[in-house]
Amino acid sequence: MLNLTGVTAGYGSTTVLRDVDFAVGEGEVVALLGPNGAGKTTLLRTATGLLRPSAGRIEFAGDEITGRPAQYFSRGGICLLPEGRGIFPSLTVRENLMIQGRGRALDASIATASELYPVLGRRLRQTAGSMSGGEQQMLALARAYLTDPKIVLVDEASLGLAPLAVDTIYEALGRLVRTGVSLVVVEQYVQKALAIADTAFILNQGVMVHSGPAKEINIEQIYERYLGINA
Ligand SMILES: Nc1ncnc2c1ncn2[C@@H]1O[C@H](COP(=O)(O)OP(=O)(O)OP(=O)(O)O)[C@@H](O)[C@H]1O
């Protein structure tokens, strides 16, 4: 469904991704793993049109979309939930839902978000930035339910959250997957990501060093073999 072939990308004269192949099928859950600075966020930004590759192809649902503007990617159903959540902290929950819904009726967006997380429905007038980290992440995740995406790419959803809040976020991701959406997770809690993933990709220093079934991954071995570090 979303295929990157031979992608090279970076920032200015700095090349981060080198000749990367990455593929996500319909309804597939992919864990994208790798050490700090490996290029995971850069890959998500490239796969969602925010960063144009200097070489390689991006195809989505059979069409080549390399070099198209980011709006083209999002309108086509590619949804990035960025690290740092991508919500507006000084706006209320209601206002955030209005923006996330992109022209969808606000009442319908509120109903969908409240059904997903009742706490959001109770905090519509509260500024997003004054909610707990977990609640802010719930609001960020609600976007994936409001725009009917075909694929959702989540960057470090559990960053800075308490274990209970992480479980709540993963429950929501699980529910999202059951609706048939494809999912890519970049996650510091490797075991959490592998538990819901069908396939795992491992990136190291901008090079894809491994891809295969998530169940077959022995993370200690992979980290030692490919990354030269102990997990
Ligand atoms: N806007 C930018 N301009 C220049 N270099 C950048 C920019 N963003 C990231 N980089 C560099 O690109 C490399 C890959 O960064 P990236 O954020 O993609 O890695 P990551 O695997 O997501 O890391 P982490 O797990 O630490 O978030 C790093 O060396 C980083 O310093």
From TrEMBL:
InterPro entries: AAA+_ATPase, ABC_transporter-like_ATP-bd, ABC_transporter-like_CS, BCAA_Transport_ATP-bd_LivF, P-loop_NTPase
Molecular function terms from GO: ATP binding
Repressor keyword on record: no
Keywords, ordered alphabetically: Amino-acid transport, ATP-binding, Nucleotide-binding, Transport
Record field: transmembrane: none
Keyword tRNA-binding recorded: no
Pfam families, alphabetized: ABC_tran
Domain ABC transporter intervals: 2-230
Chain coiled-coil ranges: none
Highest taxon listed in the record's lineage: Bacteria
Record-stated family: Belongs to the ABC transporter superfamily.
Name by which UniProt lists this protein: ABC transporter ATP-binding protein
Origin species: Frankia umida
